[in-house]
């Protein structure tokens, strides 16, 4: 199986937060492709953490299990990957209402930060997949993935040794509406001081139409936002992870 995000680890550090312009944009696929790219870039101990896994009953497989399956299908040995979830919630809703329905308290942002720091100590790549989009609340105190990214960033050296830096990747669709959603999400992330490595298209069709090609071209040459030019890092081909089965 090919490695769609080959080479992108030059711009990524030890911890990568994966958020999206929406739910269902391909964050889980992009997280798996990042893990595979990390493996082929020499990262040998890779962790995938999902702070809030919603819409799951009992022991059903969650996003981290999908990542594990996709990563294995790409030829990465299963021992290389650690999967971890913060909390499971039954309803396919944002964490606060889902927790209310389950009658549980949401884990705090500091609990997630502690888990990520623990994973950083024993892994050379930690991938964190958020819930839904950029401003979805993760806890009971209105903190979002942007706050989690900022908190993880503040606990680690800002620049210098790329091995210890934290970067966020925004996963987007190639379809109608994506330009507005991508620009809004980047504005929100950069406004909050989140260090964004770039945009990844979660599912790029084998036979893209004119609109999708035009959107991809635009995303590859985004206007400056908060003084930064955010690059398009790559695209996960539609059907990636299924081709060898
Ligand atoms: N590259 C791809 N190839 C094939 N199918 C894909 C790809 N990317 C996404 N999909 C399809 O789109 C669905 C949503 O993708 P994915 O689960 O990665 O989105 P998500 O952003 O992680 O969603 P959530 O917000 O629920 O975590 C998947 O179930 C899968 O069927
Ligand atoms: Mg997902």
Structure, explained:
The protein has 245 residues and is an alpha/beta fold. It has a single domain, classed as P-loop containing nucleotide triphosphate hydrolases (Rossmann fold). Helix content is 33%, strand content 20%. It has helices at 27-40, 63-73, 95-102, 109-122, 145-154, 178-191, 210-219, and strands spanning 15-20, 46-53, 81-88, 125-129, 166-172, 196-204, 232-237. It has a seven-stranded parallel β-sheet with strand order 3-2-4-1-5-6-7, with helices on both faces. Strand 6, helix 7 (210-219) and strand 7 form a beta-alpha-beta unit. The longest helix has 14 residues, at 27-40. The chain is globular. The structure holds adenosine-5'-triphosphate and magnesium ion. Mg(2+) binds at residues 28, 66, 129. It is found in: Cytoplasm. It is an enzyme of class 6 (ligase). Substrate binds at residue 54.
């Amino acid at each position: 199986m090919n490695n769609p995000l080959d080479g992108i680890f030059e711009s990524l550090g030890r911890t990568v937060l994966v958020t999206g312009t929406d739910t269902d944009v391909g964050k889980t696929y992009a997280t798996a492709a990042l893990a595979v790219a990390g493996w082929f870039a020499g990262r040998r101990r890779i962790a995938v953490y999902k702070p809030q896994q919603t819409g799951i009953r009992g022991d059903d497989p969650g996003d981290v299990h999908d990542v594990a399956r996709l990563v294995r299908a790409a030829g990465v040995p299963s021992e290389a990957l650690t999967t971890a979830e913060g909390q499971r919630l039954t309803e396919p809703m944002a964490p606060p209402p889902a927790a209310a329905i389950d009658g549980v308290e949401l884990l705090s942002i500091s609990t997630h930060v502690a888990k990520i720091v623990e994973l950083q100590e024993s892994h050379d790549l930690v991938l964190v997949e958020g819930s839904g989009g950029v401003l979805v609340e993760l806890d009971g105190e209105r903190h979002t993935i942007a706050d989690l990214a900022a908190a993880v960033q503040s606990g680690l050296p800002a620049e210098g040794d790329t091995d210890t830096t934290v970067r966020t990747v925004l996963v987007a669709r190639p379809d109608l509406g994506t330009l507005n959603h991508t620009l809004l999400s980047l504005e929100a992330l950069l406004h909050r001081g989140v260090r964004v490595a770039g945009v990844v298209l979660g599912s790029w069709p084998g036979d893209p139409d004119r609109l999708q090609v035009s959107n991809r071209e635009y995303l590859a040459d985004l206007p400056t936002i908060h003084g930064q030019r955010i690059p398009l890092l790559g695209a996960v081909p539609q059907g990636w992870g299924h081709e060898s089965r």
